[in-house]
Design goal:
Elements lengths: L7 E2 L31 E9 L4 E9 L2 E8 L5 E11 L6 E2 L17 E2 L3 E7 L2 E14 L2 E14 L10 E3 L8 E3 L7 H4 L9 H7 L6 E6 L9 E8 L12 E4 L21 E4 L1 E4 L2 E3 L4 E5 L6 E3 L1 H10 L5 E2 L3 H4 L2 E3 L8 E4 L5 E3 L6 E3 L5 E3 L1 E3 H6 L7 E2 L1 H4 L2 E6 L4 E6 L37 E2 L8
Parallel strand pairs: 4-11, 5-10, 19-28, 20-27
Antiparallel strand pairs: 1-31, 2-3, 2-14, 3-4, 3-9, 5-6, 5-11, 7-9, 8-9, 8-12, 9-10, 13-14, 13-29, 15-30, 16-19, 17-18, 17-23, 21-22, 22-26, 23-24, 25-26, 29-30
Length: 462
């Protein structure tokens, strides 16, 4: 779940995912359409700093009980810890005090919960494992209710929260969900990453019942180190968050990840993660099409994991240059002065629109006052696993308004525009979306977790 200091890849390899919802056939001009705004609901996100990075939480009501849940675009399950759950040591499975798992509260089985027979819940995150039962429950988010939403209720957990949240709300495709056959399903890594019974995640259910259009949007704010329940930004369900941004969007079709083994989707060819292709990179206005790569976009990853040549070029372009960490051969990360001047860096996508990352998002501030480059050498991490996985995490997403469109199986990004004070707009900002300059249409429209998949535990999968 969390991108720990030694680099846990913000990805659950428990994701692998589904088919498009209500495909739409609209113009792809890269300019937002009025159909994307002023509908749906917008929710505030809460940000909490952890040793691994800043986590985003959202408020949800489950069976009449209120929870703050970890928001994850890198997974699909909706799960909560159950009252009297066992918090386990991830190394030897010894029982720990419940507070060691850092969940704010646990879910009590309610009168509206209906258990699903002959199925088990079991998910493997970078931060641990959660196993238990599955059932249907009444879930409400932003005033929108699904009366029979399938959820996981965990009895045995090595996963951890941030002290303020409970469980995970995943926003990826259905094939990443973690229902398994039988009531005594094995909890080893290979079993948890295979033999799935896909079900509709919460957002899919909301769309299918007509509550929202088939896209969601994010605007993630920059938050200070050591913040707890701070202003994390905005989540729009079926709407584009009202945060100032440039009028033109970069467009990236969602792709199937080539490095994921077939057994993750039971040999079915299906979309799982929010994955895309970066067409070219621009470092200090030197454009290279040789550095194209496929990547996941994950709000639960605290770094950008990029190809070796891209990471090296960016880190050398800091003034003064970033230097490899002492554990570089394990983490691929580099230290940089917090006062360094960051290079200009942009990425272009399928419609040739380049998105530039804000200089403030080019480095990550640590709790001890030091800073780390936001760009990690993914090839170094892949050397120990044989699988190289690229990820665009929160350092990228803070610079943009992002739209994640199940209806068109595409993602869209527009650079954010600062308000007059230079700070991010508040959650209740009434500043309208910057209108299109040419009126062209676009169409509809994405946790360690966005949950992480620890590179060191990737074994042979991912």
């Amino acid at each position: 779940m969390f991108f720990v200091s030694f680099i846990s890849i913000a990805i659950y390899l428990t994701h692998v995912a589904g088919k498009s919802l209500n495909p739409l056939n609209e113009s792809r001009k890269g300019v937002i359409n009025s159909r994307d705004i002023n509908t749906g609901v917008t929710l505030p996100l809460k940000a909490t700093f952890t040793p691994g990075g800043t986590i985003l939480d959202v408020d949800v009501t489950v069976g009449g009980q209120n929870f703050s849940m970890y928001l994850d675009t890198g997974s699909s399950d909706f799960y909560l810890p159950r009252t009297n759950f066992q918090c386990l040591n991830g190394t030897d499975n010894s029982i720990l005090p419940q507070e060691s798992c850092l969940f704010n509260k646990a879910y009590t089985i309610s009168p509206t919960f209906q258990q699903i027979n002959n199925q088990s819940f079991g998910v493997k995150y970078g931060s641990g494992i959660a196993t238990g039962i599955l059932g249907y429950e009444t879930v409400t988010i932003g005033g929108l209710t699904v009366e029979r939403q399938q959820i996981g209720v965990a009895d045995r957990i090595t996963d951890v929260g941030d002290g303020n949240d409970s469980g995970v709300l995943g926003l990826a495709y259905p094939y990443l969900t973690s229902a398994h056959p039988g009531t005594d399903y094995p909890n080893d890594t290979l079993s948890l990453w295979s033999n799935r019974i896909p079900y509709d995640p919460l957002f899919t259910s909301l769309h299918k019942q007509g509550s929202v259009k088939p896209f969601f949007s994010l605007a993630i704010n920059r938050t200070p180190v050591n913040v707890s329940n701070g202003d994390g930004g905005l989540l729009g369900l079926g709407t584009v968050v009202e945060v100032p941004h440039k009028p033109t969007f970069a467009i990236a079709p969602v792709q199937i990840i080539g490095v994921i083994p077939p057994f993750f989707t039971d040999n079915v060819t299906a979309k799982t993660y929010w994955a895309l292709s970066v067409k070219s990179t621009d470092i200090n206005h030197l454009v290279s099409t040789n550095n194209s790569f496929q990547a996941l976009v994950d709000c639960g990853n605290f770094f950008n994991l990029v190809p070796k040549d891209v990471a090296l070029s960016i880190n050398n372009a800091f003034q003064p240059p970033a230097t490899p960490n002492i554990d570089f051969l394990e983490t691929g990360s580099s230290t940089v002065s917090c006062n360094a001047t960051a290079p200009s860096f942009g990425m272009s996508f399928s419609n040739n629109v380049t998105i530039y990352i804000d200089p403030r998002d080019m480095l990550v501030e640590n709790a001890d006052g030091t800073c780390t480059s936001a760009f990690v050498d993914a090839d170094v991490l892949g050397e120990s696993t044989g699988i190289v996985l690229h990820i665009l995490g929160t350092p990228f997403l803070r610079s943009v308004v992002s739209i994640w469109d199940f209806g068109k199986d595409e993602m869209r990004f527009a650079e954010r525009i600062e308000t007059s004070g230079g700070a991010d707009p508040p959650p209740n900002s009434s500043v309208p979306v910057v209108p299109s300059s040419n009126g062209a249409n676009q169409g509809s429209e994405i946790y360690v977790t966005c949950l992480l998949f620890t590179v060191l535990t990737l074994v042979l999968v991912l």
